[in-house]
Each structure stands twice: as structure tokens, then as C-alpha cells.
Design a protein that fits this description.
Blueprint: H1 20-30, E1 36-37, H2 52-61, H3 75-87, E2 98-102, H4 103-115, E3 121-126, H5 131-138, E4 142-149, E5 155-156, H6 158-163, E6 169-175, H7 187-200, E7 203-207, E8 232-237, E9 249-255, H8 262-274, H9 280-291, H10 297-300, H11 305-318, E10 323-324, E11 333-334, E12 337-338, H12 348-359, E13 361-362, E14 364-365, E15 377-380, H13 385-404
Parallel strand pairs: 1-13, 3-4, 3-6, 6-7, 7-8
Antiparallel strand pairs: 2-9, 4-5, 8-9, 10-12, 11-15, 14-15
Bound molecules: pyridoxal-5'-phosphate (PLP).
Cofactor: pyridoxal 5'-phosphate
Protein name: alanine transaminase
InterPro entries: Ala_Aminotransferase, Aminotransferase_I/II_large, PyrdxlP-dep_Trfase, PyrdxlP-dep_Trfase_major, PyrdxlP-dep_Trfase_small
Length: about 400
């Protein structure tokens, strides 16, 4: 047989969170090394249990979950999601506007596949959650990155957004709360993004999968709640807010003026039908989660485990010479900066690989999030405080040696 090559359409597709350095870590684990992993936002693997009521209801419903469901999801889940959109003040959402998927990930790819033709451009943040960039490329579109401004708490740079719009621009992606920076966007900024989208006829894709993982008493506004005209697709799910990544239960909601989007919506319906349906057991967890009493609040409030770990990780990481970091207001990550004068890194993947080899700590390099310079990395603050202390201590030791090189 001839050498089997991957398709040409994968040439520009990249997903470094599970990329080559992770393979290296797996290899090291097979050789018996113990690695502290600060690389993936998988809550369950750090002892953050999913709410018991979700598990119980999924178990109870398992016998009813052996068949295919409606392609857009079971009624109970979509009804609960509809109520959730009402709580978030998103107007005019009916059951038909809701698609349940195997996590948000599947729906992101679906939404891009239904939209894009060759030459179409989508504005994606830098840094981003890299699935967005990958999904645009895989769908034949061109991701165009707009900068988020570290000096302004990682808020999107509106002038940069404006300067990157042209006749091929179809949509803008916003990730709020943000992975990897932990930023939370204020309403006035959301209004400005809506205005840009309105002027240039862009669709807004709003990834809000962390909308309940909020610290310091801040509140989250869905961008879809702030306009009734701009076509907006909002993504959310159980993975993070309900610590249930493995159940693969996510959804997307179409809102705004849908009259001009009939064709696109037909495309979404077709792609939803082609994959038959999302996994049915996961769908049965949605109503219980959204209507349930076991929320994430205890973990994020003052003294809660996630909040303590965020505070500790931030304190420790910013105590290292030449490392600065915007304190996250939300989500599970921080995106520290390594002063290039002190750490003249040329290739940040190599840097992260060396850290792994020397100190057995796994992080993800900033360029893996489409950040243009090799001067950042992402840290997940999910491990217990002792492990965080140990891990950041090892990073500090590695950096101290790096400075002496
Ligand atoms: N969007 C963002 C911003 C994420 O960080 C993640 C996962 O880390 C996802 C989407 C994927 O979520 P899901 O588990 O629902 O596929």
C-alpha cells in the first residue's frame, strides 16, 4: 500500500493543547515518570466531581437512552436550555433555535462548516481557544486573528478588529469568559462589538462555556442579550459549569434576526441530521443540571476551592522574576507573560518541552493559542494547593536556571 497521507485540508489545522508535547508526556509516563499536568481544563480528573443529581438522573434515564433522539436534541433538554436563555435575557429563542451536541466542540465545527466557503474570513481572538481557529480552517475559511490587549486586562482591541474587517469577513468569534486569559468582558465592550457586527453584517459566535465560573462577585452578560437584530450563535454546555466534560453535553442557540439566515439555518439542520443526534445519556443530564440545586457557587465563592487555587497560583506565578500575569476574573486558566528581555525564548514549544523534561510539569505554550509571540504560556489552576505549590515551584526553578544560561 502507498503511504497514506492526511488530507490537504488539514494542512492549516492545528490543535496544540493535545499536540506533540502531550505525546512526549505520555511517553514519559509510560517510562514511569510522574508528571504534574497543568495543561487541560478537565475538572473531573482533579477531583471536582460532577453534581450527584446529574449522575443519578442520567443513570435513571439510561434505559430510555438507547435510541437515537431528535437531531437537535431531546425536548426536556431543549426546554431547559430555552429557560436558561430566558434567565440570561436572550430574547426570542424557541425550541427550534436550539441544537444539542456532543459538547460545544462538535457544534463549533458544525457551525463553521455550515457557514464557510473558500475565501471567507472569520475574526478569531488572539489568544484563542484553538478549536475555533482550527474549525475555521478545517471548514475551508480563513481565520483572521484580532488582538486582545494584555495591558487592558486582555479585552479585545476594537481598533484591531475594525482594521481587519474586509468584504470577505463573515463573522466574529468572542470567547467570554475567556480561555486562556480568564478575562470577562464588560457590557460596554459587548455593545461596541455588536455595533461593529451590525455595521459590517457579521454573525457573532459567542463561546460562553465558562459563564458560571466567575470569581470576586462579578457577573456575566451574554452578548446575545444585548441585541435583538444581530444574528448571534451562543455556545454553552455542561463541561465546565457542571464539571461534566466526559458526558459530552453542549448546546448552541441561534438568536437575533433570523429572517435573513434561513439558508444557513437549513445548513445547520442538515449537518445536525447527518450526525443523527448527540449522545442520548448526556442529553438527559442537561435538564437536571440547569434546573438543579448543585451549582458551582461553592467552588468559586470566597474561600471556595477554585477561588483559593486561582489566588494561590496567581500569587506564586507572579512572584517569579520576569513573570507577570493578569489575574483571571473567570474560568480555569491564566496566561502569564515571560519578559522577553529576561527569557529570550525563540521557540515556546521547545521551551515547554524542556520544562517537561527537566521538571516533569506540563504546560501549554502561548503560540498554541494562536498568540503571535513566543512569550506566554497557559496554566490550568485545577490541582490542589499542595500540587500547585509544587508545580509552580518547579517552574520557578526551571526559570531560574534559564536565566543563568
Ligand atoms: N470552548 C472553550 C472556550 C473551551 O475552553 C472548551 C474546552 O476546554 C470548549 C469550548 C469545549 O467544550 P466541550 O467540552 O463542551 O466540547
Amino acid at each position: 500500500m502507498k503511504h497514506v497521507k492526511k488530507s490537504a485540508k488539514l494542512a492549516n489545522v492545528c490543535y496544540d493543547i493535545r499536540g506533540p508535547v502531550l505525546q512526549m508526556a505520555k511517553q514519559m509516563e509510560e517510562e514511569g515518570h510522574k508528571i504534574i499536568k497543568l495543561n487541560i481544563g478537565n475538572l473531573a480528573s482533579f477531583g471536582f466531581d460532577s453534581p450527584e443529581e446529574i449522575q443519578q438522573d442520567m443513570i435513571r434515564n439510561l434505559p430510555n437512552a438507547a435510541g437515537y433522539t431528535d437531531s437537535k436534541g431531546i425536548f426536556a433538554a431543549r426546554k431547559a436550555i430555552m429557560h436558561y436563555t430566558q434567565q440570561k435575557h436572550i430574547k426570542g429563542v424557541t425550541l427550534e433555535d436550539i441544537y444539542v451536541g456532543n459538547g460545544v466542540s462538535e457544534l463549533i465545527v458544525m457551525a463553521m462548516n455550515a457557514l464557510l466557503d473558500a475565501g471567507d474570513e472569520v475574526l478569531v481572538p488572539a489568544p484563542d481557544y484553538p478549536l475555533w481557529t482550527a474549525a475555521v480552517s478545517l471548514s475551508g475559511g480563513k481565520p483572521v486573528h484580532y488582538l486582545c490587549d494584555e495591558e487592558k486586562g486582555w479585552l479585545p482591541d476594537l481598533d484591531d478588529i475594525r482594521s481587519k474587517i474586509n468584504k470577505n469577513t463573515r463573522a466574529i468569534v468572542i470567547i467570554n469568559p475567556n480561555n486562556p486569559t480568564g478575562a470577562l468582558y464588560p457590557d460596554d465592550l459587548l455593545h461596541e462589538i455588536i455595533e461593529i457586527a451590525r455595521q459590517h453584517h457579521l454573525i457573532i459566535y459567542a463561546d460562553e462555556v465558562y459563564d458560571k465560573v466567575l470569581y470576586d462577585g462579578v457577573t456575566h452578560t451574554s452578548i446575545a442579550a444585548l441585541s435583538e437584530d444581530v444574528l448571534t450563535i451562543t455556545f454553552n454546555g455542561l463541561s465546565k459549569n457542571y464539571r461534566s466534560c466526559g458526558y459530552r453535553a453542549g448546546w448552541m442557540v441561534v438568536s437575533g434576526d433570523k429572517r435573513h439566515a434561513k439558508d444557513y439555518i437549513e445548513g445547520l439542520d442538515m449537518l445536525a441530521s447527518m450526525r443523527l443526534c448527540a449522545n442520548a445519556p448526556g442529553q438527559h443530564g442537561i435538564q437536571t443540571a440547569l434546573g438543579g440545586y448543585q451549582s458551582i457557587d461553592d467552588l468559586v465563592r470566597d474561600g471556595g476551592r477554585l477561588r483559593r487555587q486561582r489566588d494561590l497560583a496567581h500569587e506564586l506565578i507572579t512572584a517569579i522574576p520576569g513573570v507577570s500575569c493578569v489575574k483571571p476574573k473567570a474560568a480555569l486558566y491564566m496566561f502569564p507573560r515571560l519578559d522577553p528581555k529576561i527569557y529570550p525564548i525563540k521557540n515556546d514549544q521547545q521551551f515547554i518541552a524542556e520544562l517537561l523534561q527537566e521538571e516533569k510539569v506540563l504546560l501549554v505554550q502561548g503560540t498554541g493559542f494562536n498568540w503571535p509571540q513566543p512569550d506566554h504560556f497557559r496554566l490550568v489552576f485545577l490541582p490542589h494547593e499542595d500540587d500547585l505549590r509544587e508545580a509552580v515551584g518547579r517552574v520557578a526553578r526551571f526559570l531560574e536556571n534559564y536565566r543563568k544560561r
